[in-house]
Structures are given as structure tokens and as C-alpha cells.
Amino acid sequence: MDSNLVLIVITSYFVLLFLISWFTSRNVSKDTFFTGDRQSPWFLVAFGMIGASLSGVTFISVPGEVGNTNFFYFQVVLGYTLGYFVIAKVLLPLYYRLNLVSIYAYLEDRFGFWSYKSGAFFFILSRTLGSSIRVFLVAGVLQLILFDKWGIPFWVSVLITVSLIWLYTHRGGIKTVVWTDTLQTFFMLLAVGVSIYLIGKDLGILKISDFIGTIASDSRSEIFNWDWQSGTNFFKQFASGAFITIVMTGLDQDMMQKNLTCRNIGDAQKNMFWFTIILVFVNLMFLCLGLLLYLYAETNGVTLPVRSDDLYPLLATQEFSAFAGIVFVLGITAAAYSSADSTLTALTTSFCYDFLEIEKRYDKDRQVTVRKQVHIAFTLLMFLVILVFRWLNDQSVINAVFIIAGYTYGPLLGLYAFGLFTKWKVKDKLVPYLAVLAPVLAFLISQNSESLLWGYKFGFEILILNGLLMFIGLYLIRKR
Fold first, then answer.
1. Confidence at residue 30, expressed as pLDDT on a 0 to 100 scale
2. Which of 1, 92, 161, 243 is the one with CA 20 to 30 A from 235?
3. Distance between CA 69 and CA 93 in Å, rounded?
């Protein structure tokens, strides 16, 4: 692809984002950044959350992973539906009843100061790592198709990326993010749809019936794996999907902050219902796209890249038409920013409310100054983490995200499960120690599971074990 054309496309895209930022940042109050004034239309939140949930990981890694694990990822997606039902019926009513800005304030009311800080800390740790990985993935693609051709080093391109996110979110915050995520979701889905159409046209698959037949007849479209020892076994994947959804959406300030901008609990639940239906269909589209990418490469004699994550970018930028390449660039750019912009806003919100107690300790004018300083600090932190991950990464990013989530979200899962399903209080000062011990024990068990558990190998369900260990620990330190 011509680098100048790519630059024009990306520049035009950011002009749109800045126009939205200008529009949504007018007449803002000190609370707009954090709550969006609780006036977001539910359907806008639902559509925008698609892009934030999928991000660049789904956009690139899920299609590429088809060559490694068939359609087994869809077992995880089916588990999502159960997780979203729990969020809509259990967690959202709790958050709205307590009128929370930071969802971790619940832990202080339920257990105490240290439990509250532990929950907020593990969210910040989880989201900083997870979102940095997502941005790293997309920054690598932009580096390949644009910045390398101009001799711009990776660290400069990443600095530009995170600086642009800061620029269009620093005033409107979550109010801006709700609207920009809608635009970004549209471009992401447009890229997938156009890619499927163009590949189908090249392969002579023009009718819907032919498309379905081609997908169904390929062995890589196998969805269910019943081998109990496999890491992609159906029951493991389904349960993992449910719990991953509960922790990475329902116990995640980033995703819940968008839901809490809805006008009331009814709108928030409608948002979750329609969001779930669309998300399942969209994930299936990504898997179908992945299979078509492999078929295209095989038919046209394209050598497969060493890393499956590189398959879609390689074909889109070097094999497809210029139009398809442009749409891909728009899609991957949208995928990067739909995740990162809301994360920066959520991290800023959590730190301001959960650690700085901004409403209690500062007057109105000082609150704005402190919030801006925290926002800049997390922008710089994400920049540094992305660079570190570039030096260390050696696996498919989709796996890296879920592996990290399995260990960092486990303590949150245990805390909320114990808080919601028991009436016991705990020895609050011991909770931070448990929150560190549970992931360590889970890791040790996972590393030795095949010898200890008759050949059983943990996959994404390590999250469930981690949460269970935290739950058991809380039970042991309960107040009698």
C-alpha cells in the first residue's frame, strides 16, 4: 500500500474523532468526564461497546487463530451469553442501586478499606496490561504498513498513538468515548464485511448458500471440542467465556462506566441484551473471515506468516486491492482506539475516585486539575508498558490477553462472589495478601496440573480456579 494514502486515511479518521470530541466537550461539567452526565442513549452505548469489547485483538488475532484452533473460540463466545445475563440481572442493578461512579466502592461498603483498594488496584493492573497489549498489536501493524517506510522508530509511533488518544478524550472523557466508540465500531465492522465480500468474490463464492456451504465443509469450521484433556474442551471454554465476561465486563470499570452513563437501569439492561446478540454474531463473522483468509492464501499460493496474528494484515496490505487495504487500515485503527480511549478514561476515573478520593479531598477547580494530571500519567504509563511488551512478547496476542486476565482478574472474581453470595464479613487487612497469594497458587497449580490432575491441562479456565482460591481464602479469614 502507498504510505501517503495510508496517512491520508488515518488523518481523515482523526479529523472525525476530533470533531466528535469538540461536539461532545461543549458545556461540560466537572462530572462529565466520569459519568457522561448519565444521559447516554442505551442503543448508542450498546453499539459502541461492540468495538470496545472486540478491539484489535479480535480484529487480528481471532481470524488468525482459526488456523491453529479451528472455530473453538466460538465456544468461549457462547459462554459470553451466560456472563452477560449475570451482569444484566445481578451486577447492573447493584451498581445503579448504590449510584456508583467507581464500581469498586461496593467493596468498601461490603468488606472495608483494604478490600476496596485491592479491588481497584487489580483493575488498574489488569486494564493497564490488557489494553497495552491491544494497542501494541495494532501499533505493530501501523508500524509495518506506514511508519517503517518513513524510518520512524516504533517508540515514536506508539507515542503518537497514545498522545492522540489523550488529545480527543482529555475534556469530554466518557461522554466523548461513548460517541467515538460508535464511529469506531462502524468502521471495524465495515472492514470485516468488505473483506469477507472481496475474498468471497475472488474465490467465486457469491451466493449466501455457497458461502455457508464453503464454511461448513471445511474442517477448520469445527466448533465443538469434547476432549476433556484439551485446553479447548467445550466445557472449559464455555465456563471460561462466562467468567471472563463477568470479570472483564461486569467487574471492569472500563466497560461498566459506559453502562452507568445510561439514564436508568432499564436502559442499561436493554443495552446489555442487544449488545450480547450483536456480539455473538460479530464474533462468528470474524471466525468466518479467518477461514476465508486461509482459503484465499491457499488458493493464491501465498506463504503463511510465522505468526498467525500477521495473516490478516499481510493479505490486506500486500495481496488485496487498494480499496480493501484502505478499509483494513480504517478498521485496525478503529479497533485500536475503541479499546484504548475508554481504558484511559476508566483508569483515570478509578484512580481519582478509588485512590485520590477526588470528591472528598479537593475543591471543584482543583478536581479538574488533578483529573488532567492523572489522565496524562496513565497515558505515559500505557506508552511505557507497550514498549516493554514489544521486548517480551512471543505468542498470539489473543492468548496473552486471556492469560493475563486469568491471573489479574481472579481476585476480583473471588471478592465479588463472596460479597454477593455470602453474608460474612472478613478480616479486611488480610485481603491484600490473599489477592496476591491466590494468583500465585493458581499459577503453580497450572504449571503442574498435568502431573497432579491425571493429564488435565488448564486453559482460560485458570480464571475460575484463581477466583475459587480467593473465595476459599476469604472464607478462611471470615469474622465469626
1. 60
2. 92
3. 37
What are the per-10-residue average pLDDT scores of the chain (480 residues)? Answer: 74 81 70 61 70 68 85 92 92 89 88 92 83 73 75 85 78 70 80 86 83 88 83 84 86 79 84 87 90 90 81 82 80 71 78 83 80 88 84 56 75 92 94 94 86 74 88 92
Residue 55 neighbours by CB under 8 Å, 6+ apart: 134, 335, 336, 338, 339
Q: Which residues contact 249 (CB under 8 A, 6 or more apart)?
A: 53, 83, 84, 87, 255, 256
Retrieve residue 435's grid coordinates: 489477592
3-state secondary structure 356-423: CCHHHHCCHHHHHHHHHHHHHHHHHHHHHHHHHHHHHCCCCHHHHHHHHHHHHCHHHHHHHHHHHHCC
**Partner residues linked to 40 by β-bridges:** 262
For cell 501499533, name the residue.
139
Angle at 258 between CA 369 and CA 464, to 5 degrees: 110
Q: What is the pLDDT of residue 325?
A: 79
Query: Using only C-alpha atoms, what is the Rg of the chain?
Result: 22
Among candidate residues 380, 406, 462, the one with its CA nearest the CA of residue 126: 406
The answer to whether 223 and 72 are in contact (CB under 8 A) is: yes
State how far Cα 317 lies from the chain centre. Answer: 25
Assign 292 to helix, strand or coil: helix
Read off the DSSP letter of residue 262: B
> Tell me, what's the pLDDT at 395?
46
Number of CB atoms found within 10 A of residue 205's CB: 20
Is residue 478 within 8 A of residue 419, CB to CB? The reply is no
Alpha-carbon span 386 to 133, nearest angstrom: 7
Contact at 8 Å (CB) between 137 and 335? no
In the block, which residue shows the cell 497458587? 441
Q: What is the 8-class DSSP label of residue 395?
A: S
